[in-house]
Write a structure and sequence with these properties.
- The structure is a homodimer of 185-residue chains.
- Chain A is of the alpha/beta class.
- The first copy, chain A, has one domain: SPOUT methyltransferase, trefoil knot domain (Alpha/beta knot, 3-Layer(aba) Sandwich).
- Helices cover 40% and strands 18% of the residues of chain A.
- Chain A contains eight helices and nine strands.
- A seven-stranded parallel β-sheet of chain A has the order 5-4-1-8-6-9-7, sandwiched between helices.
- In chain A, strand 2 and strand 3 form a beta hairpin.
- The first copy, chain A, starts with a strand and ends with a helix.
- The relative contact order of chain A is 0.22.
- At the A-B interface, helix 1, helix 4 and helix 8 of A face helix 1, helix 4 and helix 8 of B.
Chain lengths: 185, 185
């Protein structure tokens, strides 16, 4: 399998009125996605936010679990959170992946919306066994902006159940996406 | 498809030291699992807790989103939370399912642990097309007790990635389980 990374972008994302915003960190998302990354054998999980105070908050949380009281209380949590890296922008995450895995990643964005050129999960095989690392990006709030999607190499198809409802939490959607790609079924 | 329901049990579940406890409600779990239930076309989502003050808390939250300010702010959330029912014990949930779907459900428990008689996802087909409704149960905290598992008709196999790490959040695990059973892949 290629080296696979995920990134959770807090900017640029849409709010409910489709304005471009920097969303606040949600510590539960950091935990849940780190646990998913660890479960599915990913190489790293980047939390992307341009806000300095939010980076400080994330550092404090990570320190609590990695070295503080939490590290003794819950060893499984340490293992997951050790995969987390904090970056101000997506380009920094790409640079770090290049340093670690030897080349810039192929970027696969996720979106809850239908649109042109969506990549089906069933045809992802070649990218999962390719030479380039793979970076899967997720947006907080109302999702990644059109510009982020357009700048990506691929856009994964939205998760569908048997209904037309497409309002999953990032915690559930990220799990389903990683399981569709890497689950042992 | 059979009528399918899910239940999130806050009692009896294990804590970290494998003591049997009643866990506190987490409102984000209520939201995330309701959104999953709505996405996958389920008939209902039961929140099971024996604690009166916790039931009151849940009622207050539901009222905010269903009839209060939240109902206007986020219509998608209303649709999801309309599936939620509050019950003091699992047996009450089964009674309500019988009233609604005509017979007592087949109960499929979930567990992050390996064990005897685990039911594979790939062989769940007959139960999903059976005459009886299906109730899938999830445990909060460190999971459903052995007694709850033994009282169930089936125990679903644990979610596995390519690693041996089995510490997913209920928000992610429930999504993966429902997608494996009902996702349009």
């Amino acid at each position: 399998m290629s080296d696979v990374y995920i990134a959770l972008l807090h900017y640029p994302v849409y709010n409910k009125r489709r304005e471009i915003i920097a969303a606040a960190l949600t510590t539960i998302d950091m935990h849940d996605l780190a646990r998913l990354a660890r479960t599915y054998g990913l190489k790293g999980f980047f939390i992307v936010t341009p806000l300095d105070d939010q980076i400080k908050l994330a550092e404090k949380m990570l320190q609590h679990w990695r070295q503080g009281w939490g590290s003794d209380y819950n060893k499984a949590r340490v293992e997951a959170l050790n995969l987390v890296g904090l970056t101000g922008e997506l380009s920094e995450a790409k640079e770090k992946i290049k340093e670690r895995s030897g080349s810039y990643p192929l970027v696969a964005a996720t979106s809850a919306a239908d649109g042109p050129n969506r990549q089906s999960f069933s045809e992802m095989g070649p990218y999962l066994r390719g030479e380039r690392p793979l970076l899967i990006t997720f947006g907080t709030a109302w999702g990644l902006t059109d510009e982020v999607l357009a700048d990506s190499d691929l856009i994964l198809e939205p998760i569908k159940g048997p209904t037309n409802y497409n309002h999953l939490s990032i915690r559930s959607a990220a799990g389903i996406i990683l399981d569709r790609l890497f689950g042992d079924r």
